[in-house]
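Batch job 17 of 40 flagged for manual review because the log was empty.
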Amino acid sequence: MASWLFGLLLLMFHVLGMLSAVQALMSARTSQGAIAWILSLVTVPYLAVPAYWVFGRPRFYGYVSARGERDTVLRRVLAGYRDRIAPYLAGAKEADVRAVEQLAMMPLTSGNRAELLVDGHATFDSLFAGLDAAEDYILIQFFIVRDDALGAKLREHLQAAAKRGVRVRFLYDEIGCHALPERYLRELREADIEVSAFHSSRGLRHRFQLNFRNHRKIVVVDGREGWVGGHNVGVEYLGDHPRHGHWRDTHLKLAGPSVLGLQEAFWEDWHWATGEVIRLDWVPVVTCEECQNVVIVPSGPADPQETASLLVQHAIHSARERLWITSPYFVPDHSVQDALRLAAMRGVDVRIMMPERPDHLLVFLSAFSFLPDMLRAGVQVYRYQPGFLHQKVILIDEAAACVGTVNLDNRSFRLNFEVTAFVADRGFAAEVGEMLERDFAVCRRVSLAEIRARPLWRKLVSRAAYLFAPVQ
């Protein structure tokens, strides 16, 4: 009897493996991932089938997106707010910027002020001042919130705002904040703050979506000001961590009509998490004299296209003179690698800034598998020396710059919900260029000879690590 049941169980796994292999063939995010999944599902279905159900799903099914056609109530509410920015539409003339609008499914708006916030103290000083000035509402979400000194300060500022009668909604990723104690959340709720986790696996129907993350960092105050960038909430982002030391990161403070783009991204996430359609009395406010054109680009695994990957590829193809990219996790797919090499070959000053010290070893090792080809093509690779580099910034010629949450890896391109601010302004691009020049001055440039001199075992480890790129 036992052997019969065991045989039936084996047969079931093989059948499920074949069915899952067909699904992987039809829907895998990359050809590399499809081949890896199909081989493993057919040969070792006992291990591969459970792994595929958790890590192999190509889309974040069930996510209600205001940019799609799935929820008429949310779409009608957002359409009303979109009408209010009609006077501030920038009317992008360049094809490069129109393409960004199409990817974002949001318009380029004028009347914005974009302020660079370099490193943690500048970011959180600005953010806390904004929270203290809130009069009507605060929308806040982070991938990681820690119950440490910085997390305590954030909680205190939110509690003080709620005490003044400000409506506060606090959204956090359930995986990124797995270590956040219930006590922290309870104290927020006791202050009449609405709190919700972003549950990637909400309900039985969507129980196998654990590999997806909400990596966005968004704060909006009264619809007038918004913050977006690389910082999470933890003392390490202030440089107060014994292992990482100095933490190099960049955030952006926005004011003006573009803040609606941050609100819309938050609205969609909150609606997925709670089912609530947020209704706010939002009116765009312009306070700048020398204003900038901005479009917010949300991206994620519920998009009909791979928005983040296409945005990066578009930036690369648009560059004519220089393309400077900083990313802590640099494991781009072949299409991005090819675009970078071609840009360097046509004479573009292509520079990639990466950390010297890893915080995710597998991702760090993966980069060494393809760096030789990039270096041979003329791409310049730099390692940041003073501490850990975490900023996600792209500079395109003298014309535009991106600041946001997207890393150059498969997770950001296909598995994470992300958000990027695209600022089409020469003055802002010049400011970003000066910031990055200071960073490059404290980097060391990686040579082809250095990569070639690595021992064979390290080259093998790097190649093996790269095989896991589709699920990293």
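Reviewer: the log was empty due to a logging misconfiguration, but the result itself is present. The first strand starts at residue 109 and ends at 118. Unflagging and moving on to job 18.
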